[in-house]
Design brief:
The protein has 715 residues and is α/β, with parallel strands linked by helices. It has helices spanning 14-23, 25-45, 68-78, 81-91, 94-104, 120-127, 139-150, 171-228, 240-274, 283-286, 289-308, 317-405, 433-459, 469-478, 523-532, 546-561, 576-581, 590-595, 622-625, 632-642, 655-661, 678-690, 707-714, and strands at residues 10-12, 50-58, 151-155, 161-168, 416-420, 463-465, 516-517, 537-541, 566-570, 605-606, 613-615, 645-649, 668-672, 675-676, 696-699. Helix content is 57%, strand content 9%.
Amino acid sequence: MSGVSGNQDVDIDLGQLVRAVWARRLKVLAITALGAGVAFTGAKMISPKYRSETRILIEPRAPAFANAQAADANAGPLLDELNIASQVQLLQSADLIKQVINSQKLYDLPEFDAAANGSALTDILVALHLKKNPYENPPEERVIDAFTERLQVYQVPGSRVIGITFTSKDPKLAAVIPNAMAAVYLATQSGAKLASNSEATRWLEPEIQNLRQKVNDAEQKVAEYRAEHGLLPTNGGANFPTQQLNDISAELTRVRGDRANAEARAQSVRNALSAGEASDTLQDIMSSQSMQRLKSTESGLQSQISDLQTSLLNNHPRLKSLRAQLSDIKAQIRQETQKILASIENEAKVSAVRQRELEQQADKLKANSAQAGEDEVGLNALTREAAAQRQLLETYLSRYREAASRADKNSSPADARVVSKAIQPVDPYFPKLAPIVVVAALATLIMTSIAIMLAELFSGRALRPVGSPEEDAREEADEPTATTSVSPKRIATPSLLATPADGEPPAETQEDEPVVEASEFSIASVSDYLRGSRAPLAIAISPTGDDGSAATVSLARKLAEDGSRVILVDMTGSGLPTDLMAEDRSMLGITDLLCGDAAFGDTIHGDSRSDAHFIPQGISDPHRAMRGAARLSLLLDALVSAYDLVIVECGAADVAGVSRLTQSKDVEIILSMPEIVEQEFVTAMTEFEAAGYERVVLMSDGSEPIESALSQRAA
């Protein structure tokens, strides 16, 4: 390969591939035009084919005189999906195709004889036994095979419509064949109905004659049995003895009620007389007209006596006469009461006699009714047999009349109708010149371009060597930039995570290299990235010192300004985030929480300049606090459940220190370097990616000046 050694990694130069195709554009266009011309010539040489279609709707159809019930009874099977599929197969049956071929005389057309259309290629294939000799098949079978190849019958999805499509070189024939198939199909269906009706009438005629004789015999047996056993029919449907018993029982019940009523009335009259009660309280006494006249006379006499007592003395003859008349009227009332009582008692006696007679008659009728019930069992059996024979006869007669009424051809239409007839097509459906030429031109263009690209790849001109990362970085460093400046040397502030426990040697610090200012990854862009990230925990590393920690504070304030619930945990050794966010440096913080000197809620404070929250460094001994570093992961989990994002500013921490915070790799690592130091940036990126932290984000934007905060801290 040109410019590539045997042991060197290579990459594909896409630009070179495109340039190679563009350099040969005239050749590509010429080949494309040639391919389009060949496609056009070939399409013009192909014989055009025409296609037309007829559509049939499968639906239940009945003559006009047929009732709706019969139509509904036949609708179920016809609307079934299996029935529609069966009709599709019927339209493709050999018998139906033969009828169409014979009616249209297709066996005379060369288009339907494959042997007549033989070619030299076909003869060669037959000679080599690679293709069957068409002359081995009978002429009729060859015509049927050619017809079937051009025929397509299908069911329109989601409907009961069947489409019949036929393809032919003759546009007139393409329209005639589908219409002829539809006509033959409808005639076949109608003929099947006529044949079924004719067969039904022939079978029903002798059956009806036999059933009529059986019905006559059965009804004759019923009449003879009824007369022999005296089971005369009544209006209620029961036999005569049973009907008599029912009447006697009803009469007996009525007589018993009358007797009880009369006895109760007589007893009430006797009780009233024995108790000396007034007789006008009894309905039977007051309903008597004689008693009513006597009561009226008594009332008139008492009224006269009352009027005369006011003007006459008690011994006056007039008063004596009236009192005598009143006594006589009362005596008549008592006599009339006795007569009424005797009448009621006589009524009760008559009812009692009538009751005894009816009970005797009922006893006799019970025996007769029991015997009649036994005889009626046999009568019911004969009646059921006669009814069954008559019902069957009526059913056969109804079927016979229905079948006879449909013996005419017009009375049995097919259960289908043509909804769209095939018309003679004007344009051929194949070949389509424009689509064929366009597709051929595009295919030629693509294949020619691919061939040129493959030639470039195999020649090595489209391959370029790939250098090592150190060389790439060196090349990028050698490139001139407009925003490079050198800053004074500064000592990186260590992290609390790097603070050793008691007895451990402190970690050494190193001086920074010259830095390069860059503004490619601003605080605003990192803020937008964190708000769209799924990780709720972000760990900020500041390899260059307090300027990175100040940028992290600005990032937390930016997130709070954008509406996120954010908290910053100060794990730096210098405590700069605490100085920038707290009003008082002596606030309780993370070291107090790890030492157990403060509650969890007492260490969370609000930022003095934003809505963000923070946990300061604290005032406890860092060495004693880091003995409880194992509790950091639990504390961070609690914060993650309460805030949208938790930012831990670790200062100049390394991978080992970050691992003490959480074992999960699903966190955001932010390298906060307002002024990029190339060596430290490359080292940090390499270490974190090697440790499995895939999401490492660079934040290289400057922050607010920190001189004021540092001066306050020194004071």
